[in-house]
Design a protein that fits this description.
The protein is built from seven helices and 14 strands. The protein is α/β, with parallel strands linked by helices and 290 residues long. It has two domains: 13-56 and 238-288, Immunoglobulin-like; 60-236, Rossmann fold (3-Layer(aba) Sandwich). Strands 7-6-5-8-9-10 form a six-stranded mixed β-sheet, with helices on both faces. Strand 9, helix 5 and strand 10 (216-219) form a beta-alpha-beta unit. It starts with 15 loop residues before the first strand and ends in a 5-residue tail after the last strand.
């Protein structure tokens, strides 16, 4: 009987889940799409969509990471109220939310809970001081979400300025991708929009959101922040879930870490591609495909 090498028998069997939000030109979620409306590639190779769920109702695990540094001190009362309103309108039984604050350090304020009273108590403990450990906060949130089920989301409220060494942008991004957590960026704009802004930091927050499959919002007044929270709440309850078993054995390309795979998702009809926007994570690490 001919021998077959063990290497030839190695098959990638992990299902890759791709949560997708589809929005129209006004940013409103789009319902009513079917499996045949989507086409999916991994590193340029076509993949068969084996799992498709419209209006997927997975439990939510959310980390609220709120910047408490001196640069956003003026916005802290507003951020507290917006976070509480968001949680009270969004959380269903089975959903959990964790609260961390970050300035020079990252502070755990409320462990994962569905109790709004505990969240309110933690929000009241937020206070502004010191520099900004933004990337450390993202990495901490991703690590806390790593082993949790359902849809994992990091909501960051910050001006985007990272002024603490130790964890850099790439480490924060890798941690979020490894945890399969999407990052929602709510970017606070200084009172004088032409002064005190860290445009590079803002761009980094935007890129983190785009790479992990979520959105970003600018907020320079109470109405904009409340609107961002309302749109986020709606998007988190309007999810399509696609899944596939990767056929390609190739791993990693270009400057990405070894084992990183790129996901490309489009709609099959040109008119839908022109009309709708797809929000999804653009890749994953092979160590955490499922």
């Amino acid at each position: 009987m001919p021998q077959v090498s063990s290497q030839a028998l190695q098959v990638q069997v992990n299902l890759v889940n791709v949560p997708v939000t589809v929005t129209d030109g006004d940013g409103s979620p789009v319902a009513g799409l079917v499996r045949e409306d989507f086409t999916l590639n991994e590193d340029g190779h076509p993949e068969s969509i084996r799992l498709f769920q419209a209006n997927a109702t997975r439990p939510l695990s959310i980390v609220f990471a709120i910047d408490t540094s001196v640069s956003v001190r003026k916005d802290l009362p507003l951020a507290r109220q917006a976070a509480y309103d968001f949680a009270s309108s969004l959380l269903h039984p089975g959903d959990k939310l964790e609260l961390v604050g970050f300035a020079g350090d990252v502070t755990d304020l409320v462990p994962f809970t569905g109790n709004l009273r505990s969240l309110d108590h933690g929000l009241r403990r937020l206070h502004g001081e010191g520099p900004t450990a933004l990337y450390a906060a993202v990495a901490r949130a991703a690590n806390d979400l790593q082993s949790l089920p359902g849809r994992k989301v990091i909501v960051v409220i910050s001006d985007g300025s990272n002024s603490v060494a130790g964890v850099d942008y790439q480490q924060a991004r890798t941690a979020a991708l490894r945890a399969q957590a999407s990052l929602e960026s709510i970017i606070l704009v200084p009172i004088d929009a032409n002064a005190g802004r860290d445009l590079g930091g803002e761009h980094a927050m935007i890129q983190l959101s785009q790479d992990t499959g979520d959105e970003f919002f600018y907020a320079d007044d109470p109405n904009q922040l409340q609107d961002a929270m309302a749109r986020l709440s709606l998007a988190l309850r309007s999810e399509y879930l696609l899944g596939y078993y990767p056929a390609s054995p190739e791993a990693g390309k270009g400057s990405e870490p070894r084992g990183f795979r790129h996901i490309q998702l489009r709609m099959t009809r040109p008119d839908l591609n022109r009309t709708y926007r797809l929000i999804y994570r653009t890749g994953y690490t092979t160590q955490t495909a499922h």
